[in-house]
Design goal:
about 400 residues; alpha+beta; 13 helices
Length: about 400
């Protein structure tokens, strides 16, 4: 008889991610994981034992972890992502050493995690691997470090970019993202959720706003430049019902298992910024009508995930071009699996499973039958029948769709 696995999850003990993972384990008939909080790891108090298997999850739902990583007193603050990244990467490297030294096993590769949380490095690797991505003057380890708004204007002018995104290199959930359009006579328009609060501090808002004064845009971007910025071409997206559309595709062990279509009237489709889940079946029909194949779209996501072979689960943000024929990868998210109520794609092997159950089934094949039984239903799968509350804006460490 095979011994039950001894699992550890590093995450937010009171967060949804850990709860959904524990639900999947219980449904599979496996013992619950021991939970280690990110503050324990960050303060050097985490301990592991021989024979344990350790899974890392996002620190984004833990306000205390955010305070320790960024030195900010308000989770809506935008600044501090550079500090967050340095401390997070150092903490994961130290954790990996502790896990290995104890004779335990870490599920994912910490070096890949460091790349996934740097848009410049991950974009460069994807491009080098032949994965279609938006053109970028800041992609790869040898690209110039953005000094501020005037530098961005110079880089984009040289690249012939009149429409482009400015992103925090280490941000997520659309924190610090600017969708910029430029025109003749120095005209500039920037669409963003960033607002300046009392004392000049920058905050993420639940309201997307437009700035048309270049001096104001420059001041916001210059404030964030020390944290690290990534710039990429703004590709025209396909639309559904007059709303811009993109996809979040979850890839588990190299196979695309889940997909959600996101639509919005703004360039940012994140749900907390007013985006909504679109009609995936209609999107697949649009691809077919345009002469394309849905399987080709999923194959692009699987190629992107293959660039990070040591990471078992990623969330790929896929951009369908106008006309639904071509696709590009915007980002690959290390913690892109928080999609409550979403079950697996037909033919994916994850039919009837949410993203967490699919990961458990992939890691423990002997438990897959229990997860797929008609009686099995995790609370995440039941979430489709529960009214959803729009989450508060986050800054780093989580990848909210």
């Amino acid at each position: 008889m095979t011994a039950a696995p001894r699992l550890v999850v590093v995450g937010g003990p009171a967060g949804r991610r850990v709860a959904f993972f524990q639900d999947a384990l219980r449904t599979a008939g496996l013992p619950e994981a021991r939970v280690v909080s990110w503050p324990e790891v960050l303060r050097g108090g985490a301990r592991f034992a021989a024979g344990e298997t350790v899974r890392l999850d996002s620190p984004g739902e833990d306000p205390e972890a955010d305070r320790v990583l960024r030195d900010v007193d308000d989770p809506s603050r935008v600044e501090g992502s550079g500090r967050w990244y340095e401390r997070f990467v150092d903490a994961v490297a130290g954790l990996a050493g502790s896990v290995t030294g104890a004779g335990a096993t870490l599920v994912d590769d910490p070096a890949e995690l460091a790349v996934l949380f740097d848009k410049r490095l991950s974009h460069g690797l994807l491009h080098a691997a032949g994965v279609p991505v938006p053109a970028s003057p800041t992609s790869g380890p040898s690209a110039p470090v953005v000094r501020g708004w005037e530098h961005i204007r110079s880089l984009t002018a040289e690249a012939g970019m009149r429409r482009f995104f400015v992103k925090l290199a280490h941000g997520s959930s659309a924190s610090g993202v600017f969708a910029v359009q430029t025109g003749g006579a120095g005209r500039v328009q920037a669409i963003t959720s960033v607002e300046r609060g009392p004392g000049g501090r920058l905050h993420n808002s639940l309201r997307v706003r437009r700035y048309t004064n270049e001096r104001e845009v420059a001041a916001l971007v210059d404030t964030l430049a020390p944290d690290g910025l990534h710039v990429e071409r703004w590709l025209p997206k396909a639309s559904q019902d007059g709303r811009a559309a993109d996809l979040r595709v979850v890839v588990v062990d190299g196979r695309a298992t889940h997909a959600v279509l996101r639509t919005s009237r703004s360039p940012m489709t994140n749900l907390h910024l007013g985006g909504t889940r679109g009609d995936l079946a209609a999107a697949r029909a649009a691809i077919a009508s345009a002469g394309g194949r849905w399987s080709d779209a999923l194959a692009v996501c699987e190629r992107a995930a293959a660039v990070f072979p040591g990471t078992r689960c990623v969330g790929v943000d896929l951009l369908p071009a106008t006309g639904w024929r071509r696709f590009a990868v915007a980002e690959v998210n290390a913690f892109g699996d928080l999609l409550p109520g979403l079950t697996g794609l037909p033919g994916s092997g994850a039919e009837g499973l949410d993203t967490y159950a699919a990961q458990v089934a992939a890691q423990f094949p002997e438990a897959a039958e229990a997860l797929k039984s008609p009686e099995a239903s995790t609370p995440s799968q039941q979430a489709l029948r529960t009214p959803q509350v729009r989450p508060a804006p986050r800054t780093t460490g989580t990848s909210s769709p």
